[in-house]
Amino acid sequence: MLSWTCPAPLSDQPRIVMGHGGGGVMSAELVEQVFAPAFGGPVLSALTDSAALELGGAQLAFSTDSFVVRPMFFPGGSIGDLAVNGTVNDLAMSGARAAYLSCGFILEEGVGIDVVGRVAEALGAAARTAGVEVVTGDTKVVEAGHGDGIYINTSGIGLIPPGVDLRPQRVVPGDVVIVSGAIGVHGVAIMSVREGLEFGVEIESDCAALGGLVEAMLAVTPDLHVLRDPTRGGLAASLNEIAAASGTGIVVRERAVPVPQPVANACAVLGLDPMYVANEGKLVAFVPRQHAEEVLAAMRAHPLGAEAAVIGEVVDEHRGMVVARTGLGGTRVVDLPVGEQLPRIC
Questions:
Q1: Structural contact between residues 52 and 162, judged by C-beta atoms closer than 8 angstroms
Q2: Neighbours of 40 (CB within 10 A)
Q3: C-alpha span between 255 and 22 (Å, rounded)
Q4: Which of 19, 124, 139, 222 is the most buried (most CB within 10 A)?
Q5: For the whole model, what pTM was predicted?
Q6: For 276, phi and psi rounded to 5 degrees?
Q7: Would you identify the CATH topology of the domain 49-159?
Q8: For 260-310, what is each residue's pLDDT tens digit?
Q9: How do strand 73-74 and strand 77-78 relate by DSSP bridges?
């Protein structure tokens, strides 16, 4: 028995493993047991994608993110696009319109200047598309063999409109769960180029800035309860985090979850569940039932929400858990993933 190995990293690992960066159980344990106690503070304790802060009478959202995706260029985007859209989307999930970004580049000795230039151009173009300005930054170089070409960190700030209060604790039974479009696209796009796999059709990342879509939703009503962009750990991780934080149960209709056929085929070949595959241009919204129809219509009228769909609802049963109703009439528990099915996807 001492020679047995486990294909998934164990949660009591004494050293950092890839699973600690996957957005699942191991990531949560690292934050809750190491970082949160060390840093402390009531704002951090909310453990949201961006912090909502009051400063000089204004409500600000503040977020930071680091990007280590491999490969740096993939169908539909690059590490430069991700560096902007990932932080802009974290701010948007607080209802904020992103205004300014910082940008830190960590470059490995030996990487081509032309490669750095391509990434910088992509980052600048993504910032202009998202309507944000890069106003400060930093550059560091590490020795060859101590990096992976280019890593990027971005931080962002934005203003939260008056009356907007997006947080999991506001979720209540009866809320309707809506996704803005097809899931699993980004993770499968990364895997296809990383492993040289072909699925009969090129799958492009859904990487996009969601600020405009969120504005369209808030224009219907500021009374949305929570928004989340399901990146690492996919839709399953986001739903589980919201269920746990709100103390409610979530029921998802499996057949209502939009999964493109190429993504479904790729996941079947790779043995993956699309619910756990990362996205970079989708959001999941918890909306009061009385506003759900109007919000859904506003989402579908926006280019980034054309495929929006109602996938489930919040219930009073099985609190803290997510359950999927299958096409055959049965149910299954959708657990929080331990690590990440596809590491290094953002």
A1: no
A2: 9
A3: 26
A4: 19
A5: 0.89
A6: -105, 0
A7: 60s Ribosomal Protein L30; Chain: A; (3.30.1330)
A8: 999 998 888 888 899 999 999 999 999 999 999 999 999 999 999 999 999
A9: antiparallel
